[in-house]
Design goal:
The protein has helices at 2-7, 9-39, 44-49, 52-58, 61-66, 69-96, 99-104, 108-119. With 120 residues, the chain is mainly alpha-helical.
């Protein structure tokens, strides 16, 4: 198990850095996004999709904090990150031809019970 963690260190460090960068970049780009949308405020097509009240909500942080978007997507991103990190472990087992050993390995209790019941 230690070997797998050692092999995955680059991937873990890369994903951790990416998540932290995305987390800390949200705050500075919030003002940029709102100012960019305010520049298009006279556009009737944008008004149809983004009313003025929504633009005022985007200026306040309470809208982001009270929104369930972050909680919902955080719960979806964690399994995706887990799959990305675990995929090479299984693909390496497939390349080496040792995946069958992992899948057919039985529990000690089952082996003991089989031998015990066979002996009766």
């Amino acid at each position: 198990m230690k070997k797998e963690f050692y092999d995955m260190r680059v991937r873990v460090i890369g994903i951790t850095i990416t998540v932290l960068i995305l987390f800390f970049v949200l705050a500075p780009f919030q003002k940029f996004t709102v100012s960019m949308l305010e520049g298009y405020s006279g556009n009737p097509q944008l008004e149809k999709f983004l009313p003025g009240s929504m633009l005022n909500r985007l200026k306040e942080w309470s809208f982001y904090i009270n929104s369930q978007w972050y909680g919902k997507n955080f719960g979806q991103i964690i399994p995706i990150i887990g799959i990305i990190m675990a995929f090479p472990l299984f693909s390496r087992e497939t390349e080496n031809g040792t995946l069958a050993f992992l899948l057919v390995r039985r529990n000690r209790k089952l082996v003991f019970m089989d031998k015990f019941l066979t002996g009766l």
